[in-house]
């Protein structure tokens, strides 16, 4: 879908449909919606009076113009209540609109900027949200269907604005939105790929591809190099698999002279999680093809940040491997040593995420990085605690956590902080090693985070447990079935904020 900004009058566009909007409770539409209502001899206000259009969020009413106007159809979308209107509403509505237009068979559409009139919101931000929502909501993963996509979907979306003073801001917003959405969609693609099409080797090749396109520094460490560095924790997960592990490092230097302004993004890169020797039940195991979504998100965030040219240094670190129960797999009770020399008793080989991330965090420190955010589909327990509405956030640096929560709110990727009290720590104390990889009773998301905190000493660290939000089976707003691409938007915003 191509999205562009045009100076003009929405009622004069030669398109299959124009999109206008309405806040809940408005009986007499004004602005662009009012102009369209007049051109349609009061059809919109009539439908409002009849109670057919209410302006509720997600509502979409299609009106055929039957020669009264150049555009063939008008889609009136509800924005919901005006006092709860924000960028997330725009993103959602815009995603719904993209699918409505596809259903109608519309290939060229024009839209006004939602809420820019009485909504009183920032034009650049709305345009970004509009572009993100449309591109994300229209997404489908159909690479492996011989027939390809069913139906074309919207090919061109024109944002029509009559106020020339807003054009520049709108164009800037659309450009940013496209770049961010591109990264989110790539992240979804990577996480949606079946595991036989997304091995550690293929994921590493994807990182190389990003590096080539954006002119970034990339290093892929193979098994012998990881052995050399002492990554016994990461390699213990890889040893049951026939696929060679890859330790991926992708670096963007946007502020070279200022090493203080640096961020490490460590992402879990389990391309398939069978559980290993502690094998998972068969039911639903296929969704573990997405257990590298955290890793994909950090690679894709770096891609967007590089394209945006943010003045910040970002290093994505992705320990990538399968977790398989091969003959040489780790056995419960095995003790291994991480890169920092700490010993780990592995009591459950299905708690593998923390094992690969431990060496990921150690490697970030080895590079001299002082600020680390990790992203991982780490525990089923986070879904028990928070459902699939918010991801869990943990950390040892409240300022970093607060910042992430704030940019997450703006990006529409919501978080909730969970505690790391000292009192939980006895749960990861081992009888035979420095730490063990599972807790004993309850608080599974917390004990997993505590395991990582053990390796994050001396750096500012935050951890996002995305296990319950990285995939969805719902179609709503800008999200569709499959991988969500969370938290790419948040990570990009964090970097933008660090740059300013
Ligand atoms: N990848 C899983 C967590 C997960 C579960 C992600 C559901 C997405 C959806 C992780 O490696 C795992 O298996 N965690 C175990 C830990 C346990 C053995 C301590 C879990 O949550 O059951
Ligand atoms: Mn697991
Ligand atoms: Zn896992």
Provide a short characterization of the protein structure.
The protein is of the alpha/beta class. The protein has 14 helices and 20 strands. Ligand BES binds at residues 273, 291, 348, 350-353, 377-381, 438, 444, 467.
CATH topology of the largest domain: Aminopeptidase
Distance between the termini: 30 Å
Give the low-pLDDT segments. none
Q: Main beta sheet: strand number and arrangement?
A: 9 strands, mixed
Number of E-type strands: 20
Number of domains: 2
Radius of gyration: 24 Å
Structural class: alpha/beta
Q: Roughly what percent helix? A: 25-40%
CATH architecture of the largest domain: 3-Layer(aba) Sandwich
Quickly count the helices: 14
Mean pLDDT: 97
Please write the CATH class name of the largest domain.
Alpha Beta
Q: Could you state the oligomeric state of the chains shown?
A: single chain
Bound molecules: ligand BES, manganese (II) ion, zinc ion
Backbone shape: elongated
- CATH-wise, what's the superfamily of the largest domain? Zn peptidases
Strand fraction: 15-25%
């Amino acid at each position: 879908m191509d999205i562009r900004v045009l100076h003009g009058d929405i009622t004069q566009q030669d398109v299959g449909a124009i999109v206008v909007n309405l806040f809940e409770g408005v009986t007499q539409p004004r602005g662009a919606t009012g102009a369209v209502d007049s051109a349609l001899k009061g059809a919109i206000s009539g439908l409002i009076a009849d109670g057919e259009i209410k302006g509720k969020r997600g509502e979409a009413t299609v009106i055929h113009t039957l020669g009264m106007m150049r555009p063939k159809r008008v889609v009136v979308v509800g924005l919901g209540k005006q006092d709860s209107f924000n960028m997330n509403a725009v993103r959602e509505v815009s995603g719904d609109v993209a699918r409505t237009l596809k259903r109608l068979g519309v290939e060229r559409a024009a839209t006004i900027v939602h809420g820019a009139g009485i909504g009183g919101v920032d034009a650049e931000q709305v345009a970004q949200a509009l572009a993100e929502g449309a591109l994300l909501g229209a997404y489908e993963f159909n690479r492996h269907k011989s027939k390809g996509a069913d139906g074309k979907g919207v090919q061109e979306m024109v944002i029509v604005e009559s106020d020339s003073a807003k054009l520049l801001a709108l164009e800037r917003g659309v450009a940013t939105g496209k770049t961010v959405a591109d990264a989110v969609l790539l992240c979804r693609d990577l996480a949606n790929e079946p595991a036989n099409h997304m091995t550690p080797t293929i994921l590493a090749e994807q990182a190389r591809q990003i590096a080539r396109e954006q002119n970034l520094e990339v290093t892929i460490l193979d098994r012998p190099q990881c052995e050399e560095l002492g990554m016994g924790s990461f390699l213990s997960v890889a040893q049951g698999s026939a696929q060679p592990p890859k330790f991926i490092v992708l670096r963007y230097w946007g502020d070279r002279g200022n090493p203080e302004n640096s961020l490490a993004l460590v992402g879990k890169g389990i391309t398939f999680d069978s559980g290993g020797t502690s094998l998972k039940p068969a039911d639903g195991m296929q969704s573990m093809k997405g257990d590298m979504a955290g890793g994909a998100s950090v690679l894709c965030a770096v891609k967007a940040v590089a394209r945006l040219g943010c003045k910040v240094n970002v290093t994505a670190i992705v320990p990538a491997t399968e977790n398989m129960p091969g003959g040489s797999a780790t056995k419960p009770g095995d003790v291994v040593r991480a890169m920092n020399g700490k010993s780990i008793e592995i009591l459950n080989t299905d708690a593998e995420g923390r094992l690969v991330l431990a060496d990921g965090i150690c490697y970030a420190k080895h590079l001299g990085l002082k600020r680390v955010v990790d992203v991982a589909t780490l525990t089923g327990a986070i879904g028990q605690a928070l459902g699939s509405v918010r991801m869990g956030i943990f950390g040892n640096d409240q300022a970093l956590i607060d910042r992430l929560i704030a940019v997450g709110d703006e990006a529409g990727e919501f978080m909730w902080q969970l505690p790391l009290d000292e009192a939980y720590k006895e749960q990861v104390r081992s009888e035979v090693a420095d730490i063990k990889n599972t807790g004993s009773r309850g608080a599974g998301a917390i004990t997993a985070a505590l395991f990582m905190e053990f390796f994050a000493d001396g750096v500012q660290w935050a951890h996002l447990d995305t296990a319950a939000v990285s995939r969805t089976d719902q179609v709503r707003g800008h999200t569709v079935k499959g991988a969500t691409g969370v938290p790419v938007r948040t990570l990009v915003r964090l970097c933008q904020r660090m740059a300013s």
